């Protein structure tokens, strides 16, 4: 959104500049000199860190390692899956500063790229009866942010919410008996099998900052894999979600203004409740509220370590 904002500002500036030039090209240079000392009178006190920060300035490199468990489902599908375990690696940047003028409140941001393997092999499980085995590789981008409390000079407790954009490749292994006869549910799963599919997810969790360079992480992530990517319907659904989160942010800002120390917990509860609700609605329609197929859904519980450099 900030990139779009900057682009709009640049385009508007160029249009206005061109309009003035056409209106009176005979004015002298002295007449057009800008009085930079009057900047405060205009209310234009630009701050690069606040107005043009895309998440990486004054940030620290970070590596996260996560292990977890997952559950696979799809609305209207009666097949049973072997519940997989997962391993995940994240490489990114963490930025922290004080929040709302309080030195003991933390504003936390984490931007990263990640790669994840989710497989029943990691769980050491084999299929029983008619269970379907799976092995998934996923690559994507994650953006998370939240607030927390300082517990000491280099320790803290952080509550966060985030989202990912990702691409998954899933390999299903069916019991032989399920391949002998035509099966509409197997036909649906074959649309995901051994091919890259686009997906998104909502994530919420808690980070415990033990020391300056080490964090413990516990999180829940609801991820969906699209049967096919319908860009305009997906974009419309994403805009609705972004607008809802934006309105909620305004409400949370008012809570911080009146009760700053309640803000981190209230923000955590409200933003993750909204994310969960939206992804619950997308279980039936992947591009809710627009007509679309049900996605393949993964509910994931993760535990890990984050090393900050």
Automatic annotation (TrEMBL):
Residues 1-21 form the signal peptide. Keywords: Signal. This is Outer membrane protein.
């Amino acid at each position: 959104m900030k990139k779009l904002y900057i682009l709009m500002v640049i385009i508007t500036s160029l249009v206005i500049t061109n309009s003035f030039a056409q209106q009176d090209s005979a004015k002298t240079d002295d007449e057009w000199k800008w009085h930079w000392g009057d900047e405060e009178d205009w209310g234009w006190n630009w701050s690069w860190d606040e107005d043009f920060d895309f998440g990486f300035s004054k940030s620290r490199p970070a590596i996260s390692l996560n292990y977890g468990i997952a559950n696979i489902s799809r609305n209207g599908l009666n097949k049973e899956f072997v519940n997989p375990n997962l391993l995940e690696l994240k490489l990114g940047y963490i930025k922290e500063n004080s929040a709302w003028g309080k030195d003991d409140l933390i504003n936390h941001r984490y931007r990263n790229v990640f790669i994840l393997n989710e497989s029943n092999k990691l769980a050491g499980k084999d299929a029983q009866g008619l269970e379907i085995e799976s092995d998934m590789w996923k690559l994507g981008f994650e953006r998370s942010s939240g607030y927390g409390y300082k517990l000491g000079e280099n320790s803290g407790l952080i509550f966060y919410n985030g989202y990912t954009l990702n691409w998954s490749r899933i390999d299903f292994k069916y019991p032989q008996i399920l391949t002998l006869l035509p099966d509409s549910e197997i036909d649906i799963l074959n649309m995901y099998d051994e091919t890259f599919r686009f997906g998104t997810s909502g994530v919420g969790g808690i980070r415990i900052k033990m020391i300056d360079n080490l964090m413990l992480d516990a999180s829940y992530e609801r991820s969906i894999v699209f049967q096919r990517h319908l860009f305009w319907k997906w974009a419309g659904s994403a805009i609705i979600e972004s607008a809802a989160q934006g309105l909620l942010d305004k409400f949370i800002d008012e809570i911080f203004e009146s009760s700053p120390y309640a803000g981190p917990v209230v923000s955590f509860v409200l933003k993750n409740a909204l994310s969960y609700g939206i992804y619950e609605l997308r279980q039936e329609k992947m591009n809710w509220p627009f007509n679309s197929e049900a996605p393949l859904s993964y509910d994931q519980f993760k535990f890990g370590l984050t090393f900050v450099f």
